[in-house]
Design brief:
The chain starts with a helix and ends with a helix. The chain is globular, with a radius of gyration of 18 Å. Helix content is about 45%, strand content about 10%. The protein is an alpha/beta fold and about 290 residues long. About 45% of the residues are buried. The strands form two sheets. A six-stranded parallel β-sheet has the order 4-5-6-7-8-9. A three-stranded parallel β-sheet has the order 1-2-3. InterPro entries: ACMSD (IPR032465), Amidohydro-rel (IPR006680), Metal_Hydrolase (IPR032466). This is Amidohydrolase family protein. Pfam families: Amidohydro_2.
Length: about 290
């Protein structure tokens, strides 16, 4: 792995950056992560394809790898697949952030009784970012139980990374239409569209153009793996440049079927310039999380 670490470091050193900020990395309780990996191994219905886990290591080794890559800030994206899990996951994530200070304190949610209470508690405890997974959780972002939560997060300025695109397989509540309805009611919500909204790239770019607080993360987008399945339309590349201040580096580490450095190289091959790369790989997230 030392060779890959060197490659990653060379990437950001060439750009004159102090490192990387990755807003879409997964750390979660070990028993939950093992079940996630088993799902990928089985080519489950949300993937339906071979998906080898490149970084199938224990927690300490995964942390050491991110640090060797020069990732200065990262997240513990975790999410429930049913009611009754979110508050417990938030407790784990709060403890993880305390013992791993370079991890942004992450929290999650689910439409259930008590969601407003535990989301408020997480924000008051210092949560910096939330994760919402409409595909795995199979819930509507417009569920009435979540209505006060979106207002709370908008008022607090806490971003929520949402898997709301219909890739790798559509869900009952995925796609841009329900997210457009959500944003019409909560235009100040700092929504980070995971995976650039794949495969509905153009539609989610349009939402970012319409709502100044909407951002997109690069997780798995533009990679050879994703381009074979849902290629980013070449005609939309100019919109990537225009929204360069609202695109954030995300990778899905450790659950990716290729080396970490590949996500960086594919951003470079978009040929949108070094200033764009500096903003996406560090500056935009730094402005959101670390500037005082």
């Amino acid at each position: 792995m030392s060779g890959e670490s060197d490659d990653v470091v060379r990437f950001w050193e060439r750009l004159g950056l102090p490192g990387l900020i990755d807003v879409h990395t997964h750390f979660m309780p070990e028993q939950v992560l093992r079940k996630v990996w088993a799902y990928f191994d089985s080519a489950g219905p949300l993937t339906g394809m071979e998906w080898p886990i490149t970084y199938r290591h224990d927690e300490d080794e995964r942390l050491a790898l991110l640090r060797s890559f020069g990732v200065r800030r990262f997240t513990s994206m975790l999410y429930p697949h049913k009611a009754g899990m979110a508050a417990w996951l938030n407790g784990w994530a709060a403890d993880f952030a305390r013992r791993v200070p370079d991890c942004l304190h992450t929290a999650t949610l689910f439409p259930e009784d008590g969601v407003e209470r535990y989301v408020r508690e997480a924000v008051e405890a210092g949560a910096r970012i939330f994760k919402s997974h409409l595909q795995v959780g199979a819930y509507d972002a417009n569920d009435p139980l979540l209505e006060p939560v979106w207002g709370l997060l908008a008022d607090a300025g806490v971003p929520v990374v949402m898997h709301c695109g219909s890739g790798p397989a559509p869900g009952k509540y995925t796609g841009p239409e329900p997210i457009g309805r959500l944003l019409a009611r909560h235009p100040r919500l700092r929504l980070v569209v995971a995976h650039m909204g794949m495969p509905e790239y153009a539609e989610f770019l349009a939402l970012a153009e319409a709502y100044p607080e909407v951002r997109l993360d690069t997780t798995m987008a533009f990679t050879d793996f994703s381009e074979d399945l849902t290629p980013f339309p070449a005609a939309e590349r100019g919109r990537l440049a225009d929204l360069g201040d609202r695109i954030l580096l995300g990778t899905d580490f450790p659950n990716i079927p290729y080396p970490y450095v590949h996500q960086l190289h594919v951003l470079e091959r978009l040929e949108l310039g070094d200033d764009w790369l500096r903003a996406v790989c560090y500056g935009n997230a730094h402005a959101m999380f670390d500037r005082r």
